[in-house]
């Protein structure tokens, strides 16, 4: 699978990307912003994660894509739809970007393309996103792609022995197509 934006290529994962993925996911700042990413990130987890991503894609339960800079073909992160539920036509968007590329709009650009894929190709009705409340940059990405804040779940998740509040946002197909 391949999606393309002005500056990015979003491609299906394969095991040849393992070292590049490890270089990004081992960054402490990334682990600090993601609910399920441990730090330090064990190298052997990368191969298993790529296998899981490929199997999920084949089953149609997730569509996670590797993000590359179009100009240099450098791997800079991940963006995709997870928890795809075809019976209810819904999914959750998720993403991370190499810390060396934060603040350049890449997450927003990738998420916009994945959102379009979800609504126009998969014909989803609802795409949600969530982030730790203490991560306003991630919430900003979700709002930039048109998602509406739906609520905050207080102390919903524990990360590094601390309870985290989680913000929930979403966009419906009707809202997406109306705003285009």
TrEMBL record:
<dbReference type="GO" id="GO:0008999">
    <property type="term" value="F:protein-N-terminal-alanine acetyltransferase activity"/>
</dbReference>
<dbReference type="Pfam" id="PF13302">
    <property type="entry name" value="Acetyltransf_3"/>
</dbReference>
<dbReference type="InterPro" id="IPR051531">
    <property type="entry name" value="N-acetyltransferase"/>
</dbReference>
<protein>
    <submittedName>
        <fullName>N-acetyltransferase</fullName>
    </submittedName>
</protein>
<dbReference type="InterPro" id="IPR016181">
    <property type="entry name" value="Acyl_CoA_acyltransferase"/>
</dbReference>
<dbReference type="InterPro" id="IPR000182">
    <property type="entry name" value="GNAT_dom"/>
</dbReference>
<feature type="domain" description="N-acetyltransferase">
    <location>
        <begin position="24"/>
        <end position="169"/>
    </location>
</feature>
<dbReference type="GO" id="GO:0005737">
    <property type="term" value="C:cytoplasm"/>
</dbReference>
